[in-house]
Structures are given as C-alpha cells and as structure tokens.
Design brief:
The chain has 353 residues and is mainly beta. The chain is 2% helix and 38% strand. It has one helix and 27 strands. Bound molecules: alpha-D-galactopyranose (GLA).
Length: 353
C-alpha cells in the first residue's frame, strides 16, 4: 500500500492511497488562508480494519450503492452478488473495489499533476460477470480543481457504477458536525426508497419537501423533520436526479459551503445522479468495536454516480457495459473560499444546469 501526493501552486494537496484508490486527505485553505484537511479518514487507520464498512474516501465499485437482494438479470442470466447490507449488495460487496490494492502511475501534465490507478477485477469477483479493467485518474490543477476520471472495459456484459466516497467536513475540524454546512443540489427530483433503502422507481419532485436543495439550505435545518423518507434514510441518504441537458453532459451537481471557515466546494459531473449521505451511520465508537472513530454526522458524502439498483430498474439511465464499449465518467471538485461575511457562493441561489 502506497500513498501518493498531488499538489498545486496554491498549496492545495490531495493524498491518494493505492488501497481502495482512496482520497486519504485533501488540504485546502479557509478564507484566512489556513490550510486543513477537509475529508474524514486517515492513513493511520489500518486499511481493512476501521474504515472498511464506512468506505472513507474510497473508490466504490464494481457497482456503487445498493442492488436489491444482491441480484440482477442480464441477457437472460441471473447473477447473485455478495450481500453485505442485509439482503442487498452495497458498494460492490464486502470485498469491493474499496478493499483492493490498485496499481498507480503518476504523471505531470500541462493541466496539473495526475495519478492514474488501475484495478483488474476478475470475472466472477463478488458475483459480477466479465473481467473488468477499471481506471481512476485523479488530477489536481492550478485552477484549484481536482478532476476524477473513471474508465472501464469488460470481457463480458456486466454492470458498472464507479463513485468516490469521500466524507467532507469543510470546517477542517472532524470533531464538528456538518449540520451548519449550506448545500445546494441541482435537481428537481430524487429517488425515494423502500424500507431497505432501495429506490421504489418513482422520481419524486423535491418541491415542498425536506429534499429541496435547489437554493442553499443548512443541512441540519430539516434533517429531523417528520418525513418517512428521512426516517428510512436515518437522515439524508438518497439519490438526487441531476438536471442534465443531455445524458453524459458535464453539469453542476452541488455546491457546499461552510459559513464559518468560508470554504466552499463545487461539484460538476457527467454522471446522472448524486447520492447525498449525511453521515448517519458514523458513531464515534473505537475501531475495535467496529465503530467509525468519527462522530455522528461529522462528515457528508456527495457521491456522483448512476442511480442505485439501476440493473433492476429499466427506466433508470443504463449501467450495463458490453465488450467493445468504454465506460467513461468524470467528476470535478472545485475548491474556493467565500468572501468575508458571505455565507453561500455567489450566484448559487439560482442554479443554471
Ligand atoms: C453509502 C450508503 C449509506 C452507508 C454508507 C456507508 O453512502 O448510501 O447508507 O451505507 O455508504 O456507511
């Protein structure tokens, strides 16, 4: 296991570990120019122990998010996947990509320093058909953007959905919760879930609900509302349907800011969905007890991805990859600071897709 460091001219630093192709730290400045780590996770946590069921900073795959009953049918054959979330399969199964050591190759490009990670997943691994060659490239540019490129090819038809599972805490202080962060999501609809957190298939309007983040909202302002979806997710743990003008078109997904430190994060993506998870399972228990070290809601994930359970939901954007095709998705994280006295990024009150 190795850790590689990417830096830019402004001193922003991303450390990436080959175990799980994971972001282990991301240091950005606050409005006074003080740098701190804005993601949960640490290279001092032994991989395979503390972090595993929390996916800290990891690349999750072969299929990010849940697949109902860990089962799907493709070309008339049914595949049984490993189940690790009750009867469902979550984030590729217990030995998913977050548990694999990726090979890494660094490079200097005109657009910044880059690290390309590769993992070849054998046919049948965690129940998935086809040998999948997966690549994740992190590139940190002097424009203060961290670009994540995903690519994959397969030897037989399979399901693919790759995402990054970083937990952000823009205060830079992991002992504080993320409830005062302001979040904007560029989505009119989300995918409500059943009692096991599998989408029902409905695309429900966010208007008039606690899921409406079309304008900046404090995460904590409605999180405890009496709402069946919030209780099924134990808070926010849902997929939003991003407003895309065309499938695969790079678009604004979310804006996150911390009014205290002035740090803000803009996320753009080619992916159709965004899982916003408010760290509801973090419990602050020592790792020896299977706990997370980090406290309840001290980090939030904004996982750009395809919708959960897509292989079983024909109306969702497709996630099947066939030999000869190349899976390619891109997500960009842009780090900024807010001017003094401002709470939300300017222009964020009306989002243009
Ligand atoms: C995902 C899921 C959550 C939870 C976390 C890991 O983002 O949607 O329900 O399982 O991973 O704790």
């Amino acid at each position: 296991m190795k850790i590689h460091t990417l830096t830019n001219v402004h001193g922003i630093e991303a450390r990436i570990m080959t175990y799980g192709a994971a972001i282990v730290s991301l240091r950005t400045p606050d409005r006074a120019g003080n740098f701190a780590n804005i993601v949960l996770g640490s290279d001092t946590l032994a991989p395979g122990l503390a972090g595993v069921s929390y996916f800290f900073g990891a690349t999750v795959g072969r299929f990010a998010n849940r697949i109902a009953n860990g089962r799907f049918t493709l070309d008339a054959r049914t595949y049984q996947l490993s189940q690790n979330d009750g009867v469902n399969s979550l984030h590729g199964g217990p030995q998913g990509f977050h548990q694999c050591v990726w090979s890494a190759e660094g490079s200097e490009t005109s657009h910044g320093t880059a690290l390309r990670l590769t993992y070849v997943s054998a046919a049948g691994e965690e129940g998935y058909p086809g040998e999948l060659s997966a690549h994740v490239t992190y590139r940190l540019g002097d424009d203060d953007a961290l670009t994540i490129d995903y690519e994959a090819t397969t030897t037989a038809p399979t399901a693919v959905n790759l995402a990054n599972h970083a937990y952000f805490n823009l205060t830079g202080d992991p002992s504080r919760t993320i409830l005062a962060h302001l979040l904007t999501i560029n989505a009119e609809r989300y995918t409500p879930v059943d009692a096991t957190q599998i989408p029902t298939g409905e695309l429900r309007a966010v208007a008039g609900t606690a899921f409406d983040f079309r304008t900046p909202q404090a995460i904590g302002s409605r999180i405890n509302d009496a709402d069946e979806q919030l209780s099924r997710g134990h808070g926010y743990d849902h997929n939003w349907v991003l407003n895309q003008s065309q499938p695969g078109m790079m678009t604004l997904a979310a804006l996150l800011s911390d009014p205290d430190s002035g740090r803000s994060l803009e996320i753009r993506t080619t992916q159709p969905g965004l899982q916003f998870y408010s760290g509801n399972f973090l419990n602050g228990k020592p790792a020896a007890d299977g706990g997370s070290v980090f406290g309840y809601r001290t980090g939030l994930c904004l996982e750009t991805q395809h919708f959960p359970d897509s292989p079983n939901q024909p109306a969702f954007p497709p996630t099947i990859l066939r030999p000869g095709q190349t899976y390619a998705e891109k997500t960009v994280l842009i780090f900024r600071t807010l001017p003094d006295g401002s709470a939300a990024p300017s222009g964020s009150t009306s989002i243009v897709a």
